[in-house]
Amino acid sequence: MGTQTLTPAAARPGRGEALGATVAEPACVPREVAEEQAGTRKARAGMAMSLATFAMAAASAIQAVLYLGRFGTNARTDGFFVAFALYSTFGVFSQSLRVTSVPLLVQPGARLGTGRFAATLGLIALPVLLLTVPLAHPLAALIAPGLKPHGRAITAAALPVLGCAMVLQLWAAGGATVLAVRDRFTTIAGAYMAGALCGLIAFVALMGTAGVQTLGFSMLAMSIVTCSWMVVGVRGSGGLGGEGLRGEGKIAGLVRDCGVVLGRTAIYLAFNVLFVITLAFGSRASAGGTTVLSYAYLFVSYLVAGTGMALGMSSIPDLTREARAQQRTLVASAVPRGFRYALLICAPALAALIVAGAPLVHAVLPRSLSAAEAHTLRVFAALLTPWLLAALLVNFLLPVLLALGRARLLGALALPLVLLQLAATALGSALFGVNGAVGAFWIAPSALAAVLLAAAAGREGAASLLRELVPAALRFLALAGLAFGAGWAIGAALPATELVQAAVAGLIGCGAYLAGLWLIARQQLEVVLGALHPRPAAA
């Protein structure tokens, strides 16, 4: 996105002095080489964040299967998952912090220093600890009024463990924010992947002794490792800057800073609440339908998190610097490219779920997913395709608006977004039942994307970007549809079991999609491969 023309060593002031070298006139490299180096660096950063997200998703999926297989679904697990829902909601805030708070720390023009930011997160953690540890029983009665006393006791027992995990995840997200400003994305990715692995190990080790609370202790173990890794990374990259808490760092100033940090995340919280609304209307489905819808949404939402949000996290420091350098082409340079890379991955993944994934799960675990439920999973995945497109666009535009200093506008959009989702879902459900509720899921996010696009690029700029984005989306979706459609047709024609047919369909679909990419998106494919196997930097 940037057009830096200095070599990496010259581009970092003070590096030569630190090594005892004499800094002469900065050595220059050709503009094309500098742009290629910058593009490869950003691609590697985005790839690192994507791999970390998908590693966490894989660990969570394994734990979910093991948990249900061991403890089933009953009043005890209901009590635990009420507390776990609170942990998950707070996790949304913590993860969005990695995007919304970066502009507050980027120099020049930083609103908060690193030390003040750390103190702010410490103050935010205090009420979390207060509510989940000494006030765990009153909080359990508040958030689980429909449970019987035994179930609420499970909730109250889970809250202190999950509360500590929530605070550690908050601080880990703060560390990731600081490291992102310092361009240490490999450290961030390593922290989250190590945490996910340790959480999975703890889960397996404690299954026989911790009972339904096993998942809570697993989250705590994951949080301890992730937060510790982040702390070591922050210290190794310069620490907190040694600024202390003087003057404006007093309590009144910290409270004001808390308001700034919390207010910038409102739009992310509202965006994640949208599925809760859809799920409430979708619960009218037959038994098992809500679970299938949750599986479909989790799959698609992890695609968004692993592409759109991960790339947004990796790019927002540079976006903020470019915005402050008065580069008015920020949206045009940042959004289309990231959108294309995200769709390059998301389109085949969604097509693979519809064509091969659902039949494979049914063939391997017929008691867990019946033929009818596999069909429902395919339908829900297809209905979530428009939401996927809107969610990707939103996750690329939100960092741009934050970089441009439009946080107040984003906060004002949170409540209208939720109200629009309520109205659209109610109408879709009334007209077409559960499928209508799921099918309407894309309306509110699409409206938000349109508003964000107009706010970031203006009416003419938004129209120009749409003329670029829509053909790109159709191209990748059409390629994925044709590739996996051909795989399905060939697999279905084989005189074999359903498992073999689904496997053949998936393999042929993947091969055909990669071949098609080489024809219509060779440049994007080469950049992705370059991120995995970077070439040596030019001298």
Structure overview:
With 539 residues, the protein is mainly alpha-helical. It starts with 7 loop residues before the first helix and ends in a 7-residue tail after the last helix. It has helices at 8-11, 15-18, 31-71, 75-100, 102-105, 114-132, 136-143, 149-181, 185-210, 214-236, 251-263, 266-282, 289-324, 330-364, 371-383, 385-403, 407-439, 443-493, 498-520, 522-532. It folds into 2 domains: 73-264, no CATH class; 270-539, no CATH class.
Q: Please give the largest β-sheet.
A: none
Number of domains: 2
Number of strands: 0
User: Whole-number average pLDDT?
Assistant: 76
Number of helices: 20
What is the C-alpha radius of gyration, as a whole number of Å? 24 Å
Helix % is over 70%
| Main structural class | mainly alpha
The outline comes out as globular
What percentage of the residues does DSSP assign to strands (E)?
A: under 5%
Order of helices and strands: HHHHHHHHHHHHHHHHHHHH
